[in-house]
Batch of 4 targets.
Target 1
Amino acid sequence: MTGQGGSAPQTGRYSAVSMSLLTSLLARPLDPGYEAAARRRAAEGPTRRSLASTIALVLIAVLLGALTVRAAVTLRAPQPAVIQARAVLEAEVTERSREIAEAQDRIAELDAEVQALQTTALEVSDPELLARLARDDLVAGAVALTGPGVRITVADAPGAQDGDAERRVHDSDLRVVVNGLWAAGAEAVSVNGIRVSTRTAVRSAGQAVLVDLVPLSGPYVIEAIGDPDRLPTRFAGTAARDHLALLRGVYDIPWSIDPVASLTLPAAAAPTLERATVLTKEDR
Amino acid sequence: MIALLGLALGIVAGLLFEPTVPVGLQPYLPIAVIAALDALFGGLRARLDGIFDDKVFVVSFLSNVVLAALIVFLGDQLGVGSQLSTAVVVVLGIRIFSNAAAIRRHLFKA
């Protein structure tokens, strides 16, 4: 782009200036300055460059190198608008998650309060109903439970991040394991700290696995409370155990099952009341 | 030769210190990088031709980058920025390509 000092080739055939421009561009891509400098050197013999101009040269070279590499790096980075939009979304997700956590804490608090009031109210008037409620709560997963049990950890296979959906843990896999644990006699089951009740769905949305509509990511920790002696052995006899073996054998999905002396599973999300009838004497 | 050393030093410095490019200059970066590439290939070819010159290299590098950015800037002001960018890319692309071909001939004798 610089120094038209060099002589353009004289083809003689093209008279138009634009044509000679193209010809010189195609035939002599090298900057003519190099040739001119070489000729000058040949004519005048080797000359010593002054110290000042050498320093200036080096400084400019350093600057150019830094600028060019920065420009290249900047161009390779994702566009700022995209990053910004991402950051906004991320902040929103974090904020909403925090709000959900706060609301859940509040729910737990209020639940405890309701429970306490219920207990004090029924202790005297209807202890039988209270016992029944306690039993139903336990079965429905409405109260937190602590006890011995097993912990099953399932993780995505290495390489699952490369978009190979086959190597991911799917919702159906978790469903099979959870159902296997119920079949093996588990009294309470949770997935990544979310209690699975009779009303909890384990399903997927896009690539995320949803448990009770909460998106989870691997590794998935499935905890089950049950008879510490019988639960693992009975689980080993279920179809779920075969399914896990298949996952490891075919898809490389790692999993482990460990007995745990004491697990604490949180209460399931409070169910919405959909139907209510007044209890009669016969119902009790 | 000393200019190439300086350039390498600058590249390392740019990678290490990560100075940010002003947002106003962002539209001219692609063209500037293409122009820099052109100067680099030109310098490499001159070196293989045995006529490399520090001063010519640095001056052509600098003027290449500045001129390319200037042309795009002018084009932007006149509303033909993208067309002029294309023109600059075509010209520089041809030069890079033929210089690369010359370098290949030098290296592989083919």
Target 2
Amino acid sequence: MIPSAFTYHRPSSVQEAVGLLAKLGDDGRAIAGGHSLIPMMKLRLATPGHLVDLAGIADLKGIRSDGNDIVIGAMTTQHDVVCSDLLAGKIPLLRETALLIADPQVRYMGTLGGNVANGDPGNDMPAVMLCLNATYHVTGKGGGRRIAAREFYQGAYFTAMEGGDVLTAVRIPVPPAGHGAAYEKLKRKVGDFATAAAAVILTIGGGKVSSCSIGLTNVAETPLWAEEAAKILTGSSLDAATVKRAIAAAEAITSPASDARGPAHYRTKMAGVMLMRALARAKANAR
Amino acid sequence: MAKSHVTIKVNGKTVEELVEPRTLLIHFLREQLSLTGPHIGCETSHCGACTVDLDGKSVKSCTIFAVQANGADIRTIEGMANPDGTLHALQEGFRQMHGLQCGFCTPGMITRAYRLLQENKNPSEEEIRHGISGNLCRCTGYQNIVKAIQYAAAKLNGVPFQEAAE
């Protein structure tokens, strides 16, 4: 499987990359870890005339604290996320999620920025970013701007990014100490996309849920933020009846496709099961 | 299409070559450098038979272009044996523990296990299985591959290998 021919560019700054992409228009494509794009190119489902490789831009790598936020450079790999002590301490949900993405080899190459920017509803990090209320830093012809993850996803492979834009970083507000979180993913085998998956973060005070946020993966054209389900749970003790109502609210916003992973109604129900498990585990690891 | 000039260190030797940008690293290694140890199994980033070590990462060489590896330091199965020509502990382990049958996945398995043991000198069975989850074997059922890696870890750590009871 040999991709169609292209010209390779390796800019050393974001400005240079954005300039190149603006000049190349629809014929240019940014490449990060390449583990979504190169398979598409091998199948000739993508045939860019020019590849703009972001790997040479040092500014796009690394994980740092910035006030009450963690800022992760777009070219930070899933392997880097898994190995980060800073993230393990502040947002362990990210490590847990990264470990469920693909396999070790893919995690060495696949990047956080590529995972969230590609708009593939099967990717795991977008729902986690909705859950954590992340913000994406995007640079384009007109300069830099910030887009809330919850406003970023418009359809399968359609996002708030425009031609020539480069996603440079992901900014995540550090969850309160003592929070509980979990990502539960049902998949057929290692390396598979989710049949359904759920991300949960919550805080508990006096035996009641004081805050809660929920994201769902691969059960619609976009990742889903299950706002209503989280509202139902807030203030409750996560008793069985309330959890049941919240799961019904989460299932109600799904609209999965029937595919090799199962018929639509099954995937909707599995989203509910994943949410139930994630809630139980998040509760157990909250302090 | 214009070719690009790449300089890549492969198994300790620096090579300078011209490549088409669309040339995948696996084709570059096999066809331009005649390193046929890394295998083409699925060609869809799943099976891991093409795994090579690139700048301290295990990489599926069917899913990276050779131009992206410009300046990199790569090790393939051909560079795995000890400098005196004796087998690397992993190669010895696969031989002693019967870690292969048809052998097609073995170069990728060993190259991946090499990086795993660099990062984790004494992995548990579970860590080994998770660590090689990007490499498929259709013969062994993995049991003896896990043992082979445990054998190598013990040897590299200078401790006697204790085969777990089944």
Target 3
Amino acid sequence: MDIARRSKYSVTFYEPSKAYDGYTLFSVAGRNDVWIINMQGQIVHHWDLPYPAGEYGCLLSNGNLFYQGSVPIEEAPLPTFGGIGGHLLEVDWDNNLVSKYDDLYHTHDAQRMENGNFMIVRYVPVPKSITSRVRGGIPGTEHEGTMWANVLREVDPNTGKVAWEWLAYEHLDPESDIICPLEQRIEWTHCNTVQILANGDILTSFRSINTIAIIDKKTGDIKWKWGPGELCHQHDPTMLDSGNILVFDNGAHRRSSGPSYSRVLEVNPKTNRIEWEYKDNPVYEFFSGVAGGCQRLPNGNTLITESCLGRIFEVTLSGELVWEFVNPFYSYWQDQHQNFIYRAYRYGPNYEGLKGKKLTPMRFNLLNQLYGPSAFEE
Amino acid sequence: MGFARTSLQGVTFSIPRKAYNGYTLFVPIGGKDVRLINMRGQVVHHWDMPCVPGCHGVLLPDGNLLYAGQEGTGQLTDLMGSGGKLIEVDWDGDLIWKCEDEFLHSTFCRLRNGKTMVLKWIPVPKDIAAKVKGGLSGTERDGVMWTDSIQEITSCGKVVWEWLAHEHLDPESDVICPLGCRDEWTHANAISVFANGDILASFHRINTIAIIDKQTGDIKWKFGSSHELAHQNGATVLDNGNVLVFDNGLHPCGFDFGYSRVLEINPKAGKVVWGYQNSCWAAFYSSIMGGCERLPNGNTLICESTSGRIFEITHNYEMVWEYVSPFYHDVPPFGRTNIIFRAYRYGPEYEGLRGKSLDRPV
């Protein structure tokens, strides 16, 4: 374990006058915990879930936690693919179960919709007649001869009734939606995000083909697609109030011979122009080959999750660092000792979901002594 | 700039009884300083060079410093690793020897016979370039694809031996990484010489390290292009005949998680016999450059270039010394960085340090 980079934990930097005041929620790969910390890094709330993260939790406006948990790797039907999920649940503030839904083929992301349904990303095999026409990827690396893609499925968690479904392979083009040449042909799409837009349309992200897309919920048509040549294995696109799309551009298989770097960018879907971008200086100081999150905050700042190194940080529009947190919680997961966070969220003190909630660190005195900022002060 | 990662500098960790006691030489990219530090991170000697590195320096057994510098005006000056000048100075910085050629790049190897093995860019003949597979289509440099020659030169600059990559590589099977540019076929970035004169070379663009027979020029052994290496650097010959290499992990095949490894490979058996990666994989990663050196006590000194971090581990992966360079420079297009190409450790008994004053930090 290197010392320089792995010895500073909790909140390592904070400019109160510039950061967006609030509470940050995160879960850790391989652990069953969801934490809420204050701006100083003190733990103010905790859920202990029945399953490790697969991949993250978020706080709903009704004050409940929507959590995606992982089945053990041995039980996953497709263990080599990454993004293992399987359990979706909504629990209240005090960890009482509100609803749950199990789906072994769930992966990477899901949303709890306003109508109470869950919109789930899941795996589905691609028909062989299409597989043979899909271009790109490393030849001969289909999974036991099968190529997988993704389906987005809206399901009522109480009855299991499927309200809507969208099969990626019915709407993508094998000729032009080409798999990255260094990815396996196990998957065509590798969907890692599903977002429900205000008008009901779906915003999604397909890692293997470096593409983000907006799907018309009524017709299933792809209204907008963007990415190849600019994006590289991206995650977490979200639509901003302006209509622009914010996305975490990972950069693991970037087309260049230069160093790896990640960036967060904002693209205008009307013009396909990048209107804002955050990169570190030097560029390679910010990099997460997989996962990654980005959230535009009400004050114009952006909260970024650099997943592989368990770092959550906040930057202004001009790229100035105003808050930084390094996750002190580790797990032994997928052969690594790591503090991986898939996606983190900041909630302002007036967020509906926090109304009436006790957020004092005193309830977690011992944990804060071990993992709070005072444990790492010099 | 991330705060947590940049706030600890100098020697951040040290277990003196387990580390290989000595002096570490390194050159911050973008600066003109060569520094020799002791185990406490104090600078005990300093050379002020006339140009920035392209890409590093080495302390020779005779006590001189041999330095690959960047000349900055040649036609390939924007290529990664561009150099142009080999400069040898004595302990006090006085010029002993230099060799200038705009196509010199990256690294060199001073031989026991006093000659120097260097890397120079040469254009690939058009008919061969057209057959070279891989890389991003249409990204040749003004229509030209460059490759490497390895030359053995005398102190007068006379070339006494030369090896041209395009005469020994196969356009069909020595394929450029699909995400790389076709401005270069090979991009050699390391040369190291066996006791019998054979040469170990590292070709970054085609993910290949190779042993070249000095007598015939034939490639006796190749490794890496079947997804074993990912844009490696720092390949070096070990006393036991094995090869040590910094496997960067840039453009890894079949997965996205970026992480680096240092591997020891037995060329006779054709397999990896020792390897190091961090228990949190992403916490040891340098997508470009990278160096590794086996020390006399069996430890390995590793240069994680992009974080300006040099560290030493035991055979059992225990960290016993770590240093983060506090020397930053503006290096386009990367930004303001403490990046270091390679670092070397010299024991106090090293010939090149005999009689040198190393007690007082400068």
Target 4
Amino acid sequence: MRHTRTLIAVALLLAACGGNQPAPQTQNDASFESKLEQQLLDAKPGSVIDIPAGHYTLKRGLSLRTNGVTIRGAGMDKTVLSFKGQIVGPEGLLVNADDFTIENLAIEDTMGDALKINQGKNITIHGVRIEWTDGPKSTNGAYGLYPVKTQNALVEDSVVIGASDAGIYVGQSNNIVVRRNRAEQNVAGIEIENSVNADVYENIATKNTGGILVFNMPNLSQAGHASRVFKNHVFANNTGNFAKKGAAVASVPAGSGVVVNSNDKVEIFDNDIADNQTANVIISSYFSTNYYNKLGVAADYNPYPKGIYVYGNRFKGGGDSPDGLELKTLKAAVYGINGSFPDVVWDGYADPKTQADGLPPPDDRICIQDSNGVLNADGPHGYKNPSTDAKPFQCTLPKLPPVVLNPEPKV
Amino acid sequence: MSMKMYKHALLMFALLCLAACHRDMEPVAFHDEGYPTKLSDWHVVEARDGVLQLNEGVVPYELNTPLFTDYAHKLRTIWMPKGVSAQYNPTDTFDFPVGTIISKTFFYPIPKGQPRNATDIARTYDTSRDFAGQGLDLSNVHLVETRLLVRRKDGWVAMPYVWNADQTEATLARTGDVQALTLVSDSGERENFNYVVPDQSQCVSCHARDWTTRALQPIGPKARHLNRDYHYADGDQNQLAHLMRVGYLTGAPTPADAPRNANWMDPQASLDARARAYLDINCGHCHNPKGAANTTGLTLDIATSEDRHIGICKPPTAAGQGTGDHLFDIVPGHPDDSIIPYRLSSTEPGTMMPEIGRSTVHKEGVALIKAWIASQAGDCVVLH
């Protein structure tokens, strides 16, 4: 009899741990959820929705579609919206509105993206914590803080932990500031994708697969350019890649510090970049992602990184244990078993259409200064003839102007 | 008149009476503001005498290929004030006048040979027991919710109403509802699931086809979805022709000259036409050039050309864990390596597509899309 009881108890426990089992929702939680949904529905321009301190379990994704609303908690460790065992998604909170501010709260354990802002201008995210509390897992939601198709977006003083794609992911947006955030244990810590005019500074990116990424993907509404990555601490991003295959960041090798892929006019300066075991800086082309194919990629897509300027960074360590057999073999071949990749690795894809005398036009060059070397990995020929000649990278580029948010955020 | 014909005539007379019972319903009430708390405040459809009845002037319609909602059956209706009509459009939702009320009632047949209980409902495509005249036979069906789309001066407003256990009234549920139900298949298989009534904001997720203007639009009432026959009280007629006849629509060409989507279950239609109709109605409201999913570069509406835009060899943009370890949305000839059927086969929020509106897998729909992909030629050879 006792055995039977134990068995039942164990069975119940197991059932309760199942992925899709809704976490128990108390009456308090249920009435909180219903009230919050109602507040979001009834919000008017200028409304402030204050969420008091507390830990709330929600079953359904929230959404907001009214301009000019502020959602405010009592602190990123005090007001916690937990979506563990969520039964309706897709996000934790979906916003399709302008003049939106969210601050001082946490969103935990969403099944999909945590906070997605799809189409909106003047977006402020301040002091928000996004976390998947079981640590890095491929079943975690994809994106933490996810403004897409936004203009004038500020993401600051926030924390994202455990996203199975990118912790902070700004996509197809214009005029962006991402500052003073901490991104940890995500596949990509911070990713700026197909965006124009982004300043990414004073962030900490560590224990991710890749620290800070500036990417251009094909087939989208705009190609990105003009991003400045500066004064960040990007160190020990060596977590094994836990994205599902096919995801844009699944191709990022573990141990990547700052990665530019197919993006243009990217300035990387005044950062502390250390101990990223594949390389502290990687400059690469969409060809290296293994997704480029003729049928599936728009003919006008430009897969070459152009106008990339790396200077004045403080590098330390890194490059000593690249991810994957191919890169390990390449490292051993060029630098020996005990050697390391230099601070900057370029995959070697250059636009053949614009080359003259082996170099791109001046504004399209990759310029590297203050680095202990550059490796041209010769990706186009399967890494057969890598080069350590730094001369092609000895150049300067015009500096990009700072991003000015207009109107200025109110926080 | 033979005895048989006489009996038939009697039956027809009885059916017509049923259909005409709306005579004692108050006229349809268009509320130009606020959120009436009871569905019956609108007098569009009402549960009376064991039948969900349609009021006078409330015209039912069906779609060639409907959106999948956990195997729910749907009764769709449209009503307009006197003297106004919708303007025909060959591609987009008709331009409906202020005052239009569209209703969609989600219901299930009670499983055959089983007494009604609080949770069991039938998973079946058989609609033969659903109707009593133009209305629904409440002795055979279980009503879950009725959604209204109301065209007010400033645009469309969506309101979900949830039916009570007694099936006598539906109450406004602006924040939605979750009901634990059990689908029982024709062969007796049981599947527990959470039927999710969307909250008012989630209504917008699908009905705002343009995420810049954020204006709500009905999805079904387009020429290509409506261009089919309906079994009206006075006989079968093409729905576009009928709407023209009753004055609810102006400017429509003859049905033969209007676009028409395939019925996804029609064995006479081509696989391509059936799959495209299925993707159009289930995905196209978000996956169109202006919709919520225009961030993805994947468009699935009927106008999309059959190339990378519809997903052929297209790398996903923001699928995250939704790739299921697959590299491309569609790998021609290889449905099991393709992301689209993978996401259609999931019920996990964050992975499943469509993102909302279902909690179960549409097995027959997935089978259709897989067959369509299996029939495609081409390959996704990676360039270096």
